[in-house]
Amino acid sequence: MTVLTGPCVLEDRDTVLAIAEKLKPLSEDKRVDFYFKASFDKANRTSLNSYRGPGLEEGLKLFQEIKEQFGYKLVSDIHESYQAKPASEVLDILQIPAFLCRQTDLLVEAAKTNCKINIKKGQFLAADAMKHPVEKVLQTRGVDEVSYINSQEAGVWLCERGNTFGYGALVVDMRNLILMREYAPVIFDATHSVQIPSTGGTTGGNSEYVPYMARAAASVGVDGFFFETHTDPKSAKSDGPNMLQVDKLYKTIDEIFAIKEALQSL
Known about the structure:
Blueprint (H helix, E strand, L loop, with lengths): L1 E5 L6 H10 L1 H4 L5 E5 L18 H15 L2 E5 L6 H5 L4 E4 L7 H8 L4 E5 L10 H10 L7 H7 L1 E5 L2 E2 L5 E2 L3 H6 L5 E4 L5 E5 L2 E4 L4 H11 L3 E7 L13 E2 H19 L2
Parallel strand pairs: 1-2, 1-12, 2-3, 3-4, 4-5, 5-6, 6-9, 9-12, 12-13
Antiparallel strand pairs: 7-8, 10-11
Helix pairs in contact: 5-6, 9-10
């Protein structure tokens, strides 16, 4: 099972390395295909004054340090097409943010790299609409037919976090996990699924619901999970309210595997 996890954004070096150290047991778990995730630039923050990260150049230097020190595979968002090539020289997965999942130039430039591509489904889109972003990446990589197998072989994933319906929260339709797996392997974004977008100029959330959402997705069946985690979520510079504290992350992952094993025994 794939697990993408780490702090929302690259904070100061000491904090990031401390979180990376805490995740070492997960990286050594033979059940898990582990990727360390953080953003070098959160270009979609609600407020102009919110912390965005160290930027592309400094962020990639810190990612390289993490790779050399811990041997982790790495994933980060890209927001502009010019970022794809330099980011691909350090990262293993390029993540396409939800609000940019239809941006052709961004998808094409990402597809021209050797990285896997994790496309987050926009909160404004139905599951079947995600066939088209997958198609853009596959065609750029020389594959004409959209299918789970073709996407798996070409390194294209879809990521679900829920939809907005106008009442200030994300709602996850678990049918989307089934529908999108017709097009590509599906990663469930458990921590972003409990966000409360843009409350008072910042994004809120209910992290206590994360284990429940993860367990529900595990019972439906997905290819992996995305969790944002931190040693101290209350001090996190982005998305603290929906993050899991590292110890709770380990407990949640054990619960996911217990569900998978129970289903396999039926």
